[in-house]
Design a protein that fits this description.
By secondary structure, the chain is an alpha/beta fold. The chain has helices at 6-16, 34-41, 57-66, 79-85, 96-102, 106-118, 132-140, 164-167, 173-183, 187-192, 197-206, 211-221, 228-238, 244-251, 259-267, 293-302, 306-311, 317-344, 389-403, 438-441; strands at 22-27, 48-51, 90-94, 124-129, 152-155, 271-274, 287-290, 354-360, 363-371, 376-387, 412-422, 431-433. It folds into 3 domains: 6-155, P-loop containing nucleotide triphosphate hydrolases (Rossmann fold, 3-Layer(aba) Sandwich); 162-328, Arc Repressor Mutant, subunit A; 332-441, Trna Endonuclease, Chain: A, domain 1 (3-Layer(aba) Sandwich), CATH 3.40.1350. Helix content is 45%, strand content 17%. Strands 2-3-4-1-5 form a 5-stranded parallel beta sheet. Helix 4 (79-85) packs parallel to helix 6 (106-118), helix 13 (228-238) crosses helix 14 (244-251) and helix 13 (228-238) crosses helix 16 (293-302). Bound molecules: adenosine-5'-triphosphate. Adenosine-5'-triphosphate (ATP) is lined by residues 1-5, 30-36, 130, 187-188, 191.
């Protein structure tokens, strides 16, 4: 089964079919599907695939490459000599950071190989890496010897919510939101899930060898040497502490500065900083959110309960009882994707160019979609609840009240409510959507 990645495959296919040398960097968090994508792109093409390991890479690489280019057996054991035998070939090196760890000079060495041997050939060199900090600093940064050599960069993101339907064609949208809250759009986790979701989760948590216990440690090991404080920060955010002050309070640190930790967590893509949509990027009023649902799920439900899970006394009810509240946040992310899809297909009253949250002094609007040129704005409230007519009226009144606080007085205003289920969607005072619309629109 291979799901989506159409745009990435198109970009790779253009590179692979070009008449010139190409050096493509593919990176993204572990489990996201880099290897599968790279291999899919060369499915019907002769290629060398090498997964770099912790040591002896020169020897191992030669063995793999010789399956495609037997004459490489005669090459001296060094990278420059190897690449002389590999001109015009497709070469994929997975987990490139392992090569850097084994030999930090590899970067200058590859720079030389490109400049002296490959630049004027049709060789396609594709390197893959999971450590975002290392790929960023050593490969992609302007300080890297390889900086000017790459001809393409692909950052692999999670699959979209709508793609979950392809993994689980028989699941309802409600069940898909529940699954998304756990696995996000990360193929490795999606692949593990069997329906019904709650039975799967209960069984997985009970397993002595459950991957849930170790996965996040394994991911963090790739980015941080000492993850304790990072973990505490992620736990704080997963329990709804989003401002700097709230996070500090949760950690119980009064004076020490946690901004370097936050900066590193942003750089390694564990979290992101958001600002109210109407503010300038320089604002101090940023808030921190965990980037993928799997990490949020782990820090909300697994990390605080590791001992109980280990002792086999953890009850899945602990998660079930809280899950709807947690999904409130997950559903906002789903709703945003849904609106972006509607926008793309011209199914909204105007085309927005910007979408994001807004907050000020205890007041919040879940989503605001803007077109500054046309001076039109859509205010959106997202509710992971079944809404009756009277609920809709109440929410709409409150949304209208809040819309007056945002300061877009001369804009033409529109309102939308997105609920789990909404009764009487014909109400014409605002746009109303629920999971029933997803089949039509996603
Ligand atoms: N587009 C996809 N459709 C379906 N399954 C996928 C897709 N991409 C990846 N997978 C599955 O998800 C799992 C992880 O994918 P893959 O090994 O390619 O990720 P990766 O980013 O290279 O991970 P790592 O860095 O941890 O090795 C694999 O079992 C793969 O089969």
């Amino acid at each position: 089964m291979f799901i989506n990645r159409e745009e990435e495959l198109k970009a790779l296919s253009e590179k692979l079919n070009s008449n010139t040398f190409e050096f493509v960097v593919i990176y993204g968090r572990r489990r996201i599907g880099k290897t599968k994508l790279a291999l899919k792109s060369v499915e019907n093409k002769e290629h060398i695939y090498y997964l770099a390991v912790e040591g002896d890479n020169l020897k191992h690489f030669k063995r793999y490459a010789s399956k495609v280019v037997p004459t490489i057996e005669y090459a001296r054991e060094d990278w420059e000599a190897y690449f002389n035998f590999l001109k015009d070939k497709i070469i994929i090196i997975d987990e490139f950071p392992n090569l850097i760890k084994e030999n930090p000079n590899i970067l200058s060495l590859f720079q030389r190989i490109v400049d002296v041997h490959l630049k004027d050939t049709k060789t396609k060199l594709i390197i893959l890496g999971s450590s975002i900090s290392m790929m960023g600093e050593k490969v992609l940064s302007y300080k890297s010897p390889l900086y000017g050599r790459k001809t393409g960069v692909l950052k692999i993101k999670p699959l979209k919510f709508k793609h979950l339907k392809e993994f689980f064609p028989n699941a309802t949208w409600k069940e898909l939101v529940e699954i998304y809250g756990f696995a996000d759009g990360i193929p490795y986790y999606l692949e593990k899930i069997k329906l019904p979701f709650w039975d799967y989760l209960e069984e997985e948590i009970k397993r002595v060898d459950s991957f849930l216990k170790y996965e996040v440690d394994f991911l963090m090991k790739y980015e941080f040497e000492e993850p304790t404080t990072y973990k505490k920060i992620l736990e704080a955010i997963s329990f709804g502490n989003h401002s700097l002050g709230e996070i500090k309070n949760y950690l119980g640190i009064k004076h020490s500065d946690i901004t370097p930790y936050l900066k590193n967590l942003i750089e390694t893509e564990f979290i992101e900083r958001e600002i109210p949509i109407t503010e300038s990027p320089k604002t101090k009023r940023g808030r921190y959110y965990i980037k993928d649902n799997f990490i949020a799920f782990y820090f909300r439900y697994i990390f605080p309960n590791l001992s109980a899970i280990e002792e086999g006394i953890f009850e899945i009810g602990e998660i079930k009882n809280d899950y709807n509240q947690y999904l409130g946040f997950v559903f906002e992310k789903v709703a945003k994707e849904f609106l972006i899809e509607l926008n793309k297909n011209n199914k909204l009253p105007f085309k927005f160019l910007n979408i994001g949250r807004w907050w000020k002094k205890g007041e919040e609007v879940d989503l605001i979609a803007l077109n500054k040129n046309e001076k039109r704005v859509l205010f959106v409230e997202v509710k992971w609840k079944n809404l009756k007519g009277k609920d809709v009226k109440k929410i709409l009144n409150d949304l209208k009240r809040k819309s007056e606080l945002v300061g877009l007085d001369d804009y033409e205003k529109y309102y939308a409510i997105i609920g789990r289920r909404v009764e009487n969607k014909e109400d014409k005072d605002c746009l109303l959507f629920d999971l029933g619309d997803f089949d039509r629109c996603l």
